[in-house]
Amino acid sequence: MRKKIVAGNWKMNTTPSQAIDLIEKLKPLVKNDDVEVIFCVPYVSLMLAVDAVKDTKIGIGAQNFYFEESGAYTGEISASMLKDIGVKYVIIGHSERRQYFNETDEIVNKKLLKAFEYEITPIVCCGETLEQREAGVTIDHITTQIKNAFRNVSDDLAKKAIIAYEPIWAIGTGVVATSDQAEEVCASIRACISEIYDKETAEIISILYGGSVSSANVKELFKKHNIDGGLVGGVSLKPEFGDVVNYK
Ligand code: PGA
């Protein structure tokens, strides 16, 4: 049985002092040994956040990093820097990064390989636009994204990855995918992993759904066989996040 994972994507929200206040507020609300809880906070709050959760099982994740080792990349943060301060997870290829910062599948792949090199668990995002869904090319598009992301990743490492299926039309819109729509794509991602690697790897890898997850829809979504949890944006900044973690 795969353990459920609930990761909060705080995006560009909260100052460091607000982040610490929020973590202290959420800590008692997200106690659940059956669920792996992750807070992906802004860079400048990472060190404080790692310290703030040290007496808990909550993991801290970054929302991005740059794939080069070090050097003249003004403004960038490396995987070794994240590793050194105790960051355990990193979101890679979120649709907002693809849309606003031109992140390509090739960059996503480089980041995935680098995150593994530093034993940081990648949360690899994929998802289709509304136009792609309406054109009936969702599964093709997602399969391409997954195949490109996992190029040259060994099966042993792939088993440790977390994939997040996030339909772009459902992110921040309040329009959640139906549990059947989400399950269909998550199942196809698992089939794709099975095709790239093998059935065992596909059974082990965690696949989350993201896009307007809330306390109102979490139960329905998490019931599905191929949905191993959620990547949660808006609600991750509210006490309601506790209800998502304690979805049962
Ligand atoms: P949302 O964001 O829950 O606000 O839709 C999800 C995400 O972008 O990861």
TrEMBL record:
GO molecular function: triose-phosphate isomerase activity
Pathway, per record: Carbohydrate biosynthesis; gluconeogenesis; Carbohydrate degradation; glycolysis; D-glyceraldehyde 3-phosphate from glycerone phosphate: step 1/1
One of the GO biological process terms: glycolytic process
Domain of life: Bacteria
Predominant localisation class: cytoplasm
UniProt KW keywords: Cytoplasm, Gluconeogenesis, Glycolysis, Isomerase
Catalysed conversion reaction: D-glyceraldehyde 3-phosphate = dihydroxyacetone phosphate
Enzyme Commission identifier(s): 5.3.1.1
Catalytic residues identified in the record: 94 (electrophile), 166 (proton acceptor)
InterPro entries: Aldolase_TIM (IPR013785), TIM_sf (IPR035990), TrioseP_Isoase_bac/euk (IPR022896), Triosephosphate_isomerase (IPR000652), Triosephosphate_isomerase_AS (IPR020861)
A GO cellular component entry from the record: cytosol
Residue positions binding substrate: 9-11, 172, 212, 233-234
Keyword Isomerase: yes
SUPFAM superfamilies: Triosephosphate isomerase (TIM)
Enzyme class: isomerase
Subcellular location: Cytoplasm
Complex and partners: Homodimer.
NCBIfam families: tim (TIGR00419)
Family designation: Belongs to the triosephosphate isomerase family.
Function text: Involved in the gluconeogenesis. Catalyzes stereospecifically the conversion of dihydroxyacetone phosphate (DHAP) to D-glyceraldehyde-3-phosphate (G3P).
Name of the protein described by the UniProt record: Triosephosphate isomerase
Gene name, Swiss-Prot/TrEMBL: tpiA
